[in-house]
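Dear support,

Our group has been running a series of protein-ligand predictions, and this particular one with adenosine-5'-triphosphate is the one our PI (initials K.S.) wants archived with full inputs and outputs. We had some confusion internally about which version of the output was final, so please treat the block below as the authoritative record. The input we submitted was:
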Amino acid sequence: MKPATAMNEAVQPAAHLRLVSDRAAGDASGIKLSGVSKTYRTRDGDVPSLRPLDFHINDGEFFVVVGPSGCGKSTLLKLISGLLAPTTGEILVEGQKVTTPHGNVGIVFQNALLLPWRNILGNVMLPIDMKRLPRQDYLDRAKSLLKLVGLEGFEKKLPWQLSGGMQQRASICRALVHDPRIMLMDEPFGALDALTRERMNIELMRIQRETKKTVLLITHSIPEAVFLADRVLVMTERPGAIAAIYDVPLPRLRSLDVMADPVFTELVQRIRKHFFSQGALD
Ligand SMILES: Nc1ncnc2c1ncn2[C@@H]1O[C@H](COP(=O)(O)OP(=O)(O)OP(=O)(O)O)[C@@H](O)[C@H]1O
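Confirmed final output from the archive:
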């Protein structure tokens, strides 16, 4: 068995649950973090949010981050999107150093955040209008994305005429419409009921497999993380560091039945132990 990179020595992986932090290092594609830390400077003093992080998300990988509340997950996503600058270190997206917000990513937040006065198609087209790209070139793509997520026929409806899950599906289309290579998703299904959330997970997995996007998703749900991910990064309490990175040794296209698979349940348990040993469980 490979040596664990886990900081928490109490959590040892079972033989078939490899820790894979050495996978594909040095590849110029995907997302690469080298020594990336963040300390917020506030009037009340410094708030160290992330300890120096080093990891690589592969091109086309579904990478999920879990961690205790306040450990710096959203901060991590904002750094990768270029909305925030790191205090130390360097982030490369597709080989390019991130210094400002960049067009390579589509971002999905916890709430759909659709503009109430724009219809669903208008909301999906928002990044095209904001980037002043030619509308005609993207209209068909917007419509086929809406079809892909089961919203065909709802193009002219206003957001309030759709359920929460439908609005969130529209916001995923909005994040995909300009064809970014990378999707950054911050607890995208946190506000949904359990059944809709399960359906959205299946939907998202299908979209990711079909479009071969690189996805970084943050969630508080360990089963959701294991269900969706190729790899799961577990963070420590603030200032967040890498507790462990787990490979998910399950078929890439999964149905909900996989949740009864012993490999699934064992990995969920193993990740949960990190939180118990840190004294914090969400
Ligand atoms: N703009 C800011 N100024 C000062 N401190 C901040 C700022 N944004 C976040 N923080 C602090 O940094 C830490 C990490 O915040 P962040 O939102 O990244 O955590 P999180 O893991 O996403 O939390 P949660 O799971 O609860 O959403 C928290 O302690 C938070 O209070």
